[in-house]
Amino acid sequence: MQRCNYLFFIIVLAVATLVLVGCGVRREGKPGAPVAVPVAVPLVDEVSGYQKIHVFVALCDNAHQGIIPVPAGIGNGQDAASNLYWGCDGGMKTFFSKSPDWKRLAAIPNPKEHILERVIFKHKTKKAFIVADAYDGEYIKQTIMDMVTASSGQAAEKVAIEGKNYIFGGGADMIGYVGHDGLMEFQLDMKITPNSGKKKDVVILSCTSSVYFRPYIQRANANPLLWTKSLMCPEVYTLKAAIDGWLVNATPASIVESAAKVYSKYQGCSVKGARTVFTTGF
Fold first, then answer.
1. Given 44, 49, 106, 256, which residue has the most CB atoms within 10 angstroms?
2. Distance in angstroms (rounded) separating the CA atoms of residues 233 and 209
3. What is the longest distance spanned by two Cα atoms in the chain?
4. CA of 115: how far to CAs of 108, 135, 188, 216, 247, in Å?
């Protein structure tokens, strides 16, 4: 009889425990209170208030691009250090590293597949960052595809700068492309999701980019702030002029004029002639 009472007590205790658990009783809470659900941790904890520019550079490549060959030393698409669009005086890394307006914070080798080097710059007086990627020239198609994807607001990428997180790629405010117009040789077989948020401002320094890039930038629902109407040399003094204007909310027309003037200075042509190179909008 005593054994039966003991078994009965055990059964009652087990049932009571199940009832309490089913009612959602927390160990430190009150009966009937809901079970605590962990708070979702944000995927990205971004520092706000900074203007962000992401530049995609297709390194000049005599062997893999349909270009008029340049000297071998600056036309090796697998050597960023000496490349025309990266390591030379008018190249992305060198020109901005020497700029009095920007400070180079980092140079990161091989941050992602097909990217030989990434450099990060911080503006000395404004809250702005540049992330620029030097793509192996053989992968120019991938470079352009990544640029178009970012222009549509997709493929956001977290980048740590000075111990804090910032979102580039599709999370940047301005997207830039520097290099040969590979769309003269190939088309992009890619799905483009139109940007449903604030349009990205896009600068495309490449020959006749307003013609060849137009359908992709339209599908991305981006804003072509500065691109080209003719053959041109895509060195980045023109990019800097566009960024300088963009940072102070200059009008697109004034940015085109600034680009023409600096292009005239470095290329030794007339300002009138340089104005025929650049345009804005669709």
1. 256
2. 12
3. 111
4. 10, 4, 19, 22, 27
Q: Determine how β-strand 201-205 pairs with β-strand 223-228.
A: parallel
Q: Would you state the pLDDT for residue 78?
A: 98
Residue with tokens 């307003």: 210
In degrees and rounded to multiples of 5, residue 226 shows phi and psi of: -150, 125
For 238-281, the three-class secondary structure string (H helix, E strand, C coil) is HHHHHHHHHHCCCCHHHHHHHHHHHHHHHHCCCHHHHHCCEECC
- Between 32 and 108, the more confident residue is 108
Q: In what order do the strands lie in the sheet with 201-205?
A: 102-109, 115-123, 128-135, 51-58, 174-178, 201-205, 223-228, 278-279
- The residues with which 120 forms a beta bridge, in sequence order, are 106, 131
Please spell the DSSP secondary structure of the chain, one letter per residue: -HHHHHHHHHHHHHHHHHHHHHTT--TTS-TTPPPP-PPPPPS--BPPS-EEEEEEEE---TTTSSS----GGG--TT-GGG-TTTTSTTSHHHHHHH-TTEEEEEEEE--STTEEEEEEEEESSSSEEEEEEEE-GGGHHHHHHHHHHHHTT-SEEEEEETTEEEEEETT-SEEEEES--GGGT-------PPP-SSPPEEEEESTTHHHHSHHHHHHHT-EEEEEESS-----THHHHHHHHHHHTT--HHHHHHHHHHHHHHHHT--HHHHHTTEE---
Q: Which two tokens stand for residue 50?
A: 């900074």
Instruction: Give the model confidence (pLDDT) of 32-53 as tens digits.
Output: 444 343 333 344 568 789 999 9
What pLDDT, on a 0 to 100 scale, did the predictor assign at position 44? Answer: 56
